[in-house]
Amino acid sequence: MKKFLTQGWLAAWIVMAVLIIDQIIKISVKTHMLLHESIHITDWFYILFTENNGMAFGMEVLPKFFLTVFRIIAVIAITVYLYRLTHRKEKVATGFIVCLAFILAGAIGNIIDCVFYGEIFSASTRDQVASWVPLGQGYADWLHGRVVDMFYFPIIDTYWPDWMPVWGGERFIFFSPIFNFADAAISCGMIALLIFYSRYLSGETHTDKVKGEKK
């Protein structure tokens, strides 16, 4: 029983849980909603179905193929790093492992969309809901699938005052990005990592710190 309570198993459970939740949400949205259809939950929270070719929160930086390959390489690197951390004698903080596990899970979640969705789903449009199709008869080739996003939080939706230069009278929305559960896992993991465990990013471990204090 103890072997399932190690940091390595904790990381594995987190990754599996995030992936299951992420894919259930994405598949449910994709197979039940039209593209750009929205469901009003509250005035500051909508389920708004969109798809994107880019990175988290809909950003586009690299061509689709190279972006997917980059994601896969990054996931492999994080997996190897996480494995080494959880199997070395000097243990690091469990919270650091949890942060890495959330980042890894989120990255894998979006990779699944990019690699497989184009091959197993028909295209989502404003007039037709996507459906499962035989492998290879989907809307795109391998590595060219689009990432499914759905969470939209327009916490503030207003207009700039008319007297304001440049933006006067234009609409202002805070927070406008549309994202998915995997994006949220990555963002939460990264923020917690930077706030609480930045020393590990600079190569300083708990063991190193103790040795320095003894000197």
Mind explaining what this structure looks like?
The structure is a single chain. With 215 residues, the protein is an alpha+beta fold. It starts with 6 loop residues before the first helix and ends with a helix. The chain is globular. The protein has helices at 7-30, 64-86, 94-120, 181-196, 198-201, 206-214; strands spanning 38-42, 45-52, 147-152, 156-159, 171-174, 178-179. The model is unreliable at 206-215 (pLDDT under 50).
Overview in brief:
By secondary structure, this protein is an alpha+beta fold. It has 6 helices and 6 strands.
Q: Assign a percent range to the helix content.
A: 40-55%
C-alpha termini separation: 39 Å
**With helices defined by DSSP (H or I, 4 residues minimum), what is the helix count?**
6
In order across it, which strands form the biggest sheet? 1-2-3-6
The computed structural class is alpha+beta
Shape: globular
The low-confidence parts are 206-215
Radius of gyration: 21 Å
**Average of per-residue pLDDT values:** 88
Strand percentage lies at: 5-15%
Largest β-sheet summary: 4 strands, antiparallel
Care to count the β-strands? 6
Element string (H = helix, E = strand):
HEEHHEEEEHHH
Structural descriptors:
13% strand
Map the helices and strands.
Blueprint: H1 7-30, E1 38-42, E2 45-52, H2 64-86, H3 94-120, E3 147-152, E4 156-159, E5 171-174, E6 178-179, H4 181-196, H5 198-201, H6 206-214
Helix pairs in contact: 1-3, 2-3, 3-4
